[in-house]
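Q: A reviewer asked whether we had any structural model of the full assembly, not just the individual parts. We don't, so I'm hoping you can provide one. Inputs are below.
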Amino acid sequence: QITLKESGPTLVKPTQTLTLTCTFSGFSLSTSEVAVGWIRQPPGKALEWLALIYWDDDKRYSASLKSRLTITKDTSKNQVVLRMTRTDPVDTATYYCAHKARGPGVFDYWGQGILVTVSS
Amino acid sequence: EIVMTQSPATLSVSPGERVTLSCRASQYIRNNLAWYQQKPGQAPRLLIYAISTRAPGIPARFSGSGSGTDFTLTVSSLQSEDFAIYYCQQFNDWPITFGQGTRLEIK
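A: Here is a predicted structure for the entire assembly that you could use as a starting point for your response.
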């Protein structure tokens, strides 16, 4: 059974760096073609894909946020970490991590999400 | 960036009705199209990928179709649990992009 869970601060001040951790079970991020992605959703708004890391450490980022994002993995701990620098109130959102299976680039398992508020 | 445009933004329908949601890509995306359902306070759930393949456990009343740039999600007979927001997503090219969503509400 695949599960994912996001953890991190729920409140950060503007300009601070946000670090979120996705802890997962039921799969290995060393399996070919498997990946973990981050998607966010501002309150009442649509989903926005942020970043993805593959089993082979290949990384992909949203073009608009690339300069502020870093995604890393720790396969031994079954964790994926997303760092976002220079946060702003517009980054207030629920942040989800999700599993991408082999094959199509879709997210078939999602974490419950963590609401992060950026405010002074 | 491939822009995904969903229409309409909101659909008011009655239980038991058949409903079709639309999604248009700004460029050709082959069959790299998925649909998700999201209920209030919940994470999205994968419904369909590769245009028309239902994810495990998804009822047969959900079906997807289309090609190239125009795609549809059809719910053949709406159940009370189907009232939610639906998002399309393309994975043909980076960055992955989602549509703005269509809200299905009870008439």
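A: Points you may want to mention in the reply: Residues 39 and 53 of chain B are 21 Å apart (CA to CA). The first strand of chain B starts at residue 4 and ends at 7.
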